[in-house]
Amino acid sequence: MTMISKPDANPIAAAILTWFVFGIGHIVINGQTNKWIMTIVVTIIGSILCVLPGLVLGILSVVDSYKTAERLKAGESIPENEYSNVLLFKVCKLIDKKATCKLA
């Protein structure tokens, strides 16, 4: 399991990039490539099924990106597939069997 440690992570930048640039804050700020792929996939699926689930998942992704960047900035090392938002974790866990969440 790959651990990520980024004490220079910026929670505000992570949230902004995640909301406005297709979730890219997960990669650029937090260094979580697989998590970015999973959140984009579930958001697209949610948007195809109905706009509201896609919007909710997009917002949860922004919150998760922010919380993860806060944890990284505080000096915490986290697994590459760790989620900081329990609801987003539960949705992504349906397709990503390696996903973890210490809060769940």
Oligomeric assembly: single chain
Question: What summary fits the major beta sheet?
Answer: 2 strands, antiparallel
Radius of gyration: 12 Å
Cα separation of the termini: 19 Å
Strand content: under 5%
- Order of strands across the main sheet: 1-2
Judging from the principal axes of the Cα atoms, what is the shape?
Answer: globular
Uncertain ranges: none
Number of domains: 1
What fraction, in percent, of the residue positions are helical?
A: 55-70%
Could you tell me the mean pLDDT?
A: 93
Tally of helical segments: 5
**What is the string of SSEs from the N terminus onward?**
EHHHHEH
Say how many strands there are.
Answer: 2
Derived structural class: mainly alpha
Descriptive account of the structure:
It is a single chain. Strands 1-2 form a two-stranded antiparallel sheet. It starts with a strand and ends in a 12-residue tail after the last helix. 59% of the residues lie in helices and 4% in strands. It has helices at 11-20, 25-28, 33-49, 51-73, 86-92, and strands at residues 3-4, 78-79. The protein has one domain (8-92). Helix 3 packs antiparallel against helix 4.
